[in-house]
Amino acid sequence: MNRKMRGLVGCVVLICCVLNGALGWSKEGHMMTCKIAQSLLEEEAAKTVSHLLPEEVKGELSELCVWADQVRHWYKYRWTSSLHFIDTPDNKCSFDYARDCHDPQGKQDMCVAGAIQNFTSQLLHYKHGTSDRRHNMTEALLFLSHFMGDIHQKLYFQPMHVGFTSDEGGNTIDLRWFRRKSNLHHVWDRDIILTTLADYYDKDVDLLLQDIERNYTDGIWSDDVASWSHCNDLSECVNSWAKESIQIACKWAYKGVESGMTLADDYFNSRMPFVMKRIAQGGIRLAMILNQVFGKSEEGFAAAT
Ligand SMILES: *[C@@H]1O[C@H](CO)[C@@H](O)[C@H](O)[C@H]1NC(C)=O
Ligand SMILES: *[C@@H]1O[C@H](CO)[C@@H](O)[C@H](O)[C@H]1NC(C)=O
Ligand SMILES: *[C@@H]1O[C@H](CO)[C@@H](O)[C@H](O)[C@H]1NC(C)=O
């Protein structure tokens, strides 16, 4: 690419990020999830992932983990926009795939839980040499990596990731985050992580990432990692990850929160650990999927095909 082209592409990328509101935590959260995942890949999976990535990212999956947000409003990718979230009926605090996993027109499977299964199954066919040539395997990898972040990270909104229908996943609950105007969705999507970075990590994402990694290798979560990544039947696992998110949303995000409130230290200190844990879980589980799909073993998710 010559310099002018690069400038133009940079410009286009910047504009669509701004339009998408994809700056801020959603970006950092996705990047951390992907960095954790890539660091846990076994040899075979690591090779396949770098083979699928476009050359310009030099093998760094995290560079493209917000790609799915960047393209979701492009005409060609409009079909993907409902894949970023699940809206559950108000106050149900549960997830029922048959009831909840559809797009606004009612088309089944078109939600983040269906998408994870879809792109995992495409990658499995790729590994077995039976892939449908119409499907682009680089895109399947990027979608899967992004949606594993979405199903774990956000308080599902419109585009919320798992939230209630009528408030568009917290987007219509306006409030203050410390002294700034925000809304409940943005608090979970962006503000908690940015405040964490600013207050404890000198705004350095790598320092935060190291702390998260320490906590799952020999810190507070080290005994839980095996159960986080245990999965025989992908569709059951995906449903339970969505349920975890909805329960966190009910118990911790929405509870006691009303429009017009100010959320500050109490809310921040008690909720921050959940956000950090979801980033770790998202990364560990993405690695688990990629290792099973691309690994040497023939078992993997054979059932998911
Ligand atoms: C699965 O991916 C294909 C394209 O790769 C797309 O046409 C289809 O709508 C997707 N379905 C889901 C549930 O993501
Ligand atoms: C697959 O998708 C990527 C990302 O959109 C694109 O750069 C690449 O050209 C596509 N490959 C094919 C064979 O269409
Ligand atoms: C890591 O664990 C310590 C407690 O051992 C905790 O204080 C810290 O907030 C955790 N860090 C993250 C990013 O979860």
UniProtKB/TrEMBL annotation:
One of its GO terms (molecular function) is metal ion binding. It comes from the Eukaryota. It is an enzyme of class 3 (hydrolase). It catalyses: Endonucleolytic cleavage to 5'-phosphomononucleotide and 5'-phosphooligonucleotide end-products. GO terms for biological process: DNA catabolic process. Keywords: Disulfide bond, Endonuclease, Glycoprotein, Hydrolase, Metal-binding, Nuclease, Signal. Residues 1-24 form the signal peptide. Its EC number is 3.1.30.1. Belongs to the nuclease type I family. Monomer. This is Aspergillus nuclease S1.
